[in-house]
Amino acid sequence: MSFTFIKHDTNIDFIGKRYWVYAVSVLLILIGIISAVWGNGLKMGIDFAGGVIVQVQFQEPVADEALKKGLDIPALPGISTQRFGEGGRDYLLRFSSAENADATHLRTTVMEALTATFPGNTAEIVRLEIVGPKVGADLTNKALSALYYAILLIAVYISGRFEQRWMAGAIMAAALWGGIYVAGLTGLGMGWLVLLALGITMVVCFVLRLNFALGAVVGLLHDVAITVGLLSLMNVEIDLNVMAALMTLVGFSLNDTIIIYDRLRENLRATPDLDMAHLINKSVNQTLSRTILTSGTTLLSTLALYFLGGGVIHDFALTMLIGVVVGTASSIYVSSAILLALGDTDFYVRLVQRKDQYERPGEHGVV
Question: What pTM did the predictor assign?
């Protein structure tokens, strides 16, 4: 007797519940915007803002407040402490520092402050890193650029794969390159340029009716916006680990979206007489077993990293935990639902027929 994780005839009305999910998504995005603009703000780590990070280990546990009070001196401006690991012996110290700060001098200053604050508790500096303001700004620009170009290339790829419109994708990429080049001459910062480019991407996808690409891009932006907003609400520092998690989230969410898109394309061939809502529901239900297994195992692995991985990868694991849940939901309720809003069954059937004609030899042997 075989075991089936999800029954093949499952018929959950995902699309019918999409408005509830929209309400939750809008609420989370608004909370994130309020937190980022009027609340905690985006707490940038030293990787992007510049500064000094010092990892220290004490012989005996120390109290957070005593440590922070002892290091609150003019030579260590903007000090913040973060405990990690078990036992209260390991801490990450972060503080701002002038450009061209001397590592040896900083090490001596930190050790003197620790010795004066905890005279009977030996401390050891395990790691000391200095990131200057120029390096931090350069890393910020590169991180934003990487995130944007990843989303742009995804839009081009999906346009070609699902709609057989490689030329339209290339036109979109060229238009964006030209638009960003011109906007760059105005002296706008990289953050504004990326926002402008993402706006142009969505407008071009809408005008050219690249619905699959638009659905994927909006879904990815939805995931990143909610995740970053919740990180701001929880006062989590945005550093290279968090940025790596966001890039991983983009790939994870896209993979789930493409699985559903592939099954939808097959169902458009097999049952073109069904309306689009039924086709999307059917596709999501048919891939539900795979979605639960993939997202579930990823979630379990990330939970293990969050609770057992230590303080160094704590923020990475937290970002992934949020992203896995949000990314799985957006593949169903955002990326797929946009297809329903922007076209009927006949429109997508024609796309599938166009792709089939391209991939298979026709009457005249054209591939």
Answer: 0.82
